[in-house]
Amino acid sequence: MDDFKPTAVPSQHQKLGEVHRVCPTHGAYVAGVYRWGEMSCKSCHEAALKAAERAEQQARHVLHMSQRSRHARNAAHIPERFADRLLSNYIPVCPAAQYALEVAERFVSEFGTVQTQGRSLIFCGHVGNGKTHLAIGIAHELIKKMRYPLFMSVLNAVRHVKETWRKDSVRSESQAIRDFIEPDLLILDEVGVQFGSDTEKLILFEIINGRYNRKKSTLLLSNLMVQELSSYLGEPVIDRLREGGGIAVPFTWASYRA
């Protein structure tokens, strides 16, 4: 009996032949034919791979920036209640409020010059009319610019420094004060909410003066009017904050919360 030699079945990857095709994008090409079908345009395939790689890189970049932004917001101590306060969703209810918004926007857009000059700002006046909203909005914009803002109430700032007075503290008072001097912008909230002791005022002066000497910008938020704020902080502090083009913006319109 003759030896039986079965015909080998082509594998899935064995080329059976070639055909000529025309890609609407890349023109004529030769496509390999296999049991499962034929190859598509090689140039289209390579373009699709590159597009997928770019999309993956973009997705990683978006995730990285989102994580960085969240970390920066946490590092800036932006309160959860005010996390959504942006310059873009601040609604000015009168010409004075529009002016305050324009000051905030200009502060952000000119921040390179602001840093060079050590220019500061004071938002002062009535309760509930958007001082914190604009300040947080500025912080958000600076985070986008890869700057480091820090938001802190005066009470918490003083408490942070006083914690170093404990016998078991591993940090010095000067180190604690340095925490408030290093940020690109320090936003001090509730300035003068209660008339503090001379010690508390001295701590506040050390922080503001330290930033002044380093040409670091400071934004004060207060429900006091300028004259009252000057009495609380002292005229030398107000003069330092106004140097380099710093201004006090009065918030005198009715409360948004009313």
Automatic annotation (TrEMBL):
Annotated GO biological process: DNA replication
Superkingdom of origin: Bacteria
Record carries keyword S-adenosyl-L-methionine: no
Single GO molecular function: helicase activity
Keywords attached to this entry: ATP-binding, Helicase, Hydrolase, Nucleotide-binding
Transmembrane stretches, start-end: none
Residue ranges of every copy of the IstB-like ATP-binding domain listed in the record: 102-238
Stored PANTHER family: ATP-BINDING PROTEIN RV3427C IN INSERTION SEQUENCE-RELATED (PTHR30050:SF4), CHROMOSOMAL REPLICATION INITIATOR PROTEIN DNAA (PTHR30050)
Protein name: Phage DNA replication protein (Predicted replicative helicase loader)
